[in-house]
Amino acid sequence: MAITLTIDGKEVTADEGKTLLEVVREMGGDVPTICFHEATTANGLCRMCVVDVEGQRVLQPACIVTVGEGMKVQTGSEKVVRSRRTILEMLSSTIDLSEAAEIQTMMTDYSATTDRFPDAKRRESDVKDDNPMYVRDYSKCLLCWRCVQVCADDAQYTFAINFNGRGFETQIGTFFDKPIPETSCVLCGQCVGVCPTGALKPKREYLLEQGMSASEISVMNTGRKQRKPK
After folding, report:
1. Do residues 160 and 100 both lie within one domain?
2. Which pLDDT score, from 0 to 100, does residue 210 have?
3. CA distance 183 to 29
4. Which regions of the chain are under pLDDT 70?
5. Interatomic CA distance for residues 189 and 213, integer angstroms
């Protein structure tokens, strides 16, 4: 069934069940996203994709709200822009976004500043280097849930990682905070592939950044392979 709605003053027709994000992108429009990924289930966590729907009290997350007959939607109203800018500034005040290239671009696009919340508590975490595949730096993690979803029933069905803690102390972790080799992780690397901030990084890339040469890494890996299990 076809649905007729108006987006940014333009009347469009869309299939019933499609999300506003899908329709806007099909129109060639741009709605920024952070937690959304094509390979995982949309949950509307980050709220970067909010749009202004006439008649709705609050802004609506375009990644999960489906089209409705006669909807009137604005994707770049003053209210929408202000909301997105605030989200970016809040993230920047608590998380290390230095390796989140797409989010850095959004910061520029929305004129977001890095010092709006100078008293905010920053997330701090030591780098967890406990496996040969990747390292984990949760000071860069914005809890987008992509890695949890792809590790679970969106893709791998391994369920090696999930949310730990509550409130501000929430972070991604393993059951009982076990090292990765002691979990059900199969080192597939899919969690690394969907991470938008560098919180999960390939081990080789990390070692190169730490100043280790490619030959040194190769020797180290060869030694690991030859080491006999206890």
Report:
1. no
2. 80
3. 42
4. 212-230
5. 22
**Each residue of 4-19: pLDDT tens digit?**
999 999 999 999 999 9
Query: Closest by alpha carbon to 125, among 46, 202, 203, 199?
Result: 199
Q: What pLDDT does 57 receive?
A: 93
The number of distinct structural domains making up the chain is 2
User: If we measure between CA atoms, which residue out of 105, 199, 216 comes closest to residue 161?
Assistant: 199
8 A C-beta contact, residue 26 and residue 74: no
| 158 domain residue, yes or no | yes
139 is in which domain, residue-wise?
134-226
Q: Is residue 129 part of a domain?
A: no
**Polymer length in residues for the chain:** 230
Does residue 113 fall inside a structural domain? yes
